[in-house]
């Protein structure tokens, strides 16, 4: 696990304080590394939306909020459906087999949230990459990595893991049977349903 993943894991498990500056010196001591990899990790996490600016050159962990969760859902639904639409006719049996492997890996019970988020993206990516649209693909990947911050709610109090897996299974079934319309409808439902559930939960916590 690299420094970025360690910081993400600590953020997800509330081991680092929200709303306070994260100092490179403190993190280098915490993770027993020099400041250079810490600096690089903070820059990467800032670009992914896990951290926000604080002061002149610092960063901090932002609070999770329903508006961000809802916006991520809106953007993902539009862009991922477009990407799957472009990819659909070019998805190969090898892509489907890779997606099946990632789906089976997601059924493991003792996965960390970071690993679960990575496997979730890999499953979707297996179906999207055939689009061969690198600019769109990069943006979709960025949104997915940013959305991992909310997995603790989706797989914790919202108990959404089983529903998500059932939808993954159905989506892959539509891809295998070449039912493009059904696959696109389900993908949008998959993203929007989870996003609305999360946003409503966070609104109630405010």
Descriptive report:
The protein is mostly helical and 206 residues long. Helix content is 69%, strand content 4%. The chain is built from ten helices and three strands, in the order H-E-H-H-E-E-H-H-H-H-H-H-H. It has helices at 3-12, 24-31, 35-48, 66-87, 93-105, 113-128, 134-147, 151-154, 161-176, 180-205; strands at 21-22, 52-54, 58-60. Strands 1-3-2 form a three-stranded antiparallel sheet. The longest helix has 26 residues, at 180-205. It is globular. The model has no long low-confidence stretch (mean pLDDT 92).
Total number of beta strands: 3
Rg for CA atoms:
18 Å
- Count helical runs: 10
Strand content: under 5%
What shape does the CA trace take?
globular
Kindly report the average pLDDT value. 92
H and E string: HEHHEEHHHHHHH
**What oligomeric assembly is this protein in?**
single chain
Proportion of residues in helical segments: 55-70%
Broad structural category: mainly alpha
For the termini, the CA-CA separation is 33 Å
In short, what is this structure?
The chain is mainly alpha-helical and 206 residues long. The protein has helices spanning 3-12, 24-31, 35-48, 66-87, 93-105, 113-128, 134-147, 151-154, 161-176, 180-205; strands spanning 21-22, 52-54, 58-60.
